[in-house]
Amino acid sequence: MVFLLGFLFLCGVTDLIGSVSITIPEQTIQEAQGETVHLPCMFTLSPEDQGPLDIEWLRLSGPNNEAMDHVIILYTVDKIYSDFYQDLRGRVNFTSNGIMSGEASIKIRDVQPADSGTYLCKVKKAPGVAKTTVQLTVVDYIGSVSITTPEQTIEEAQGETVHLPCMFTFISKDQGPLNIEWLRLSGPNNEAMEHVVILYSADKIHDDVYPDLKGRVYFTSNDIKSGDASINITNVQLSDAGTYQCKVKTYPGTVNMNLQLAVTNHIGSVSITTPEQTIQKARGETVHLPCTFTLSPEDHGPLFIDWMQLTGPQNEVVNRMFIVYLADKIYDNFYQDMKGRVQFTSNDIRSGEASIHITDVQLSDAGTYQCEVSHAFGTAKGTIQLTVVG
């Protein structure tokens, strides 16, 4: 009898619609051949859903995806069965151990062009049933897009807002729909995708996919398509530390970059000696934004300096990062509008001089700027208000 019920379930005969709901929209996902692809499926239950939890991932076929081609993976009676489909045997698994909490997403390793197609996630907990489909496209090369932000370690004090930068550029004019995923990785070599943190797909943002960061993570730019996929995490906690990956996809390109986030439980002895101030400059002139700092003998880690432009009523939002000093190198091509116009004023930044110049200053450059200096367990910030007159 149990076998018969299972068979009927697999065949989709008992297609009741109840109060189960899937929170991830139907979407198209593109991945490069040989990579690991993440097919998202997040769901919520209601008190009326009292039956056993069953989750199916199916591969569909036919002109309107009306035919069930294969069962890919199945979760039923607290067990996982992943050997139904020979072509994916050993390559498919659920991404989370917390399936009961609403995470039914799967990952497929070493994807191939033959894996392209339509996949259906079906969640059943009587009397509720919910479904969503994901269209997977696997391309055989990487191109058309590049991430200009270097891989780095970012350190922030507990309770602060941390900025994780990810700037990208389009290499070719032929571009498909833009998809951006921020992932949290795990494993000795960061080979495992632990969680999707935030997702941009089909011009929509989905920021409630990771319960631990719900309400605390957001994209910093209102114009992601311009090349800024950076995110902020507010009220950062020690448990947020780890490796995060920014993945940018636009046909036929896929590129990713990892950032290591370190969260400290105290702010150390770095101090910025420049007072917060307002500076006014005429349009077309060169403006000097001062930032001098001191370190103590206890600060032994690598020196990290970033200049950001802030927005929001309380200057709580990082609008963009536009120049960075990291591991004795300078990165000044993050922000297209200031490319070639911004530079550090000193050749010896480590001596305590993090001031910058912006040449040919424009009315659009006006706003609040933040200089942030991090060294070992020390972090200090100072802001400057820039006014440009015409």
Automatic annotation (TrEMBL):
Gene Ontology biological process terms, A to Z: homotypic cell-cell adhesion
Signal peptide: 1-19
Keywords, comma-separated and alphabetical: Cell junction, Receptor, Signal, Tight junction
Molecular function GO labels: cell adhesion molecule binding
Entry's Gene Ontology cellular component terms: adherens junction; basolateral plasma membrane; bicellular tight junction; intercalated disc
Domain Ig-like: from-to ranges: 18-123, 127-264, 268-387
Pfam families: V-set
Compartments it resides in: Basolateral cell membrane; Cell junction, Adherens junction; Cell junction, Tight junction
Gene3D superfamilies with a match to the protein in the record: Immunoglobulins (2.60.40.10)
SMART domains in the cross-refs: IG (SM00409), IGc2 (SM00408), IGv (SM00406)
Membrane association type: Single-pass type I membrane protein
Function: Component of the epithelial apical junction complex that may function as a homophilic cell adhesion molecule and is essential for tight junction integrity. Also involved in transepithelial migration of leukocytes through adhesive interactions with JAML a transmembrane protein of the plasma membrane of leukocytes. The interaction between both receptors also mediates the activation of gamma-delta T-cells, a subpopulation of T-cells residing in epithelia and involved in tissue homeostasis and repair.
Protein name: Coxsackievirus and adenovirus receptor homolog
